[in-house]
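Subject: Sanity check before I submit

Could someone independently write out the structure tokens for this chain? I want to compare against mine line by line before I put it in a report. The sequence has 271 residues.
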Amino acid sequence: MPYPNSCSYTVVDSHNHIHFDEYKDDRPQVIKRSASRCLAAMLLVGIDRKDSEKALNIARQYKGLYVSIGVHPQNAGQYGAGDVLGLASLSRDTRVVAVGETGFDLYRTPDTLDLQKELFSAHVDLARRLNLPLVIHTRNADSILLEMLDDLDAWELGGVIHCFSGDMKMAEHVIKKGFMVSIPGVITFKKAHVLREVAREVPEESLLVETDAPYLAPMPYRGKRNEPSYVVETLKAVSDIREVSIAHMANVTTDNFCRLFLKGRELEVIQ
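---
Independent answer below. Compare away.
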């Protein structure tokens, strides 16, 4: 596998939003910094039709940028099932490797649960049609998510619980069903005891790391705008917790990304 610049290992950011306006003034520099810190590739995740299109347009300008298309559950009510299924036209581009961000958010938008269920069902339908894995958001909604995945027989699609915030019981359940968990920069925070347990105990073949940029910047950048290059701090934390080298953990998470999203295709490296 080719490495970016002079790196001896590769890192992949499995979830970010660098297509957001927060990066409109320095996006090329952000991507350049990412490559200089051994970031080989990243997944740009859409939260509605316009956002997914913007992510894809930016991904077309660089190698090593991939896209997930979806409508965020917080947008339930603004968009319906038809809007989700209409995203299928974007999948003609091979940079589109996943469906989402989908799922449930009962923290910020608890009043739209029924609409969130409709959106989620449409995402599962779309992923099934396109033979793509799911990128899932869940906040205060784990039991509902698991119930819906069961009811829709959606586990077979594969996917990842992004920005994982559940406990070990939740992690074991989704991993047993074939999903991965993605560790965010929160793991570097002092009070992230439960997440550190998950990062320590989860089988390495089920782990990804992410930034969720521009949110949740890891230490020592907490409180600042997050960016993909900071995923190295998360990777270091996971490596320390598991008592393995950062090179080993980088290669593991990169291989997991390729297996889940690229399905045998060669990974393009950021250029």
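---
OP: Matches mine. For the report I'm noting this point. The longest helix spans residues 113-130.
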